[in-house]
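PROTEIN DATA CARD
Card holder: SHOCT domain-containing protein
Chain length: 75
Origin: Tetragenococcus solitarius
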Amino acid sequence: MYDGVCSGIIGSGFLWPIPVVLVFLIGLSMIMIAKNNRQKKRPIESSSLEILNERYARGEIDDQEYSRRKKNLDL
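Structure generated from the sequence above:
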């Protein structure tokens, strides 16, 4: 009846992959951002523990201070 003049929101039929690809790319980018954020947090925690261990080994902090700070890092 309309002969393709008004065939819906996604056009004449050959444009339907575009919204699908866009949704896929948005989802993929959200997953990559979340994964990247998780990986950035891990080295900070381990480097804090390494610094604490180095300070303890150099004698800058005593046993009680070391235990207290290590307990705080584990939380």
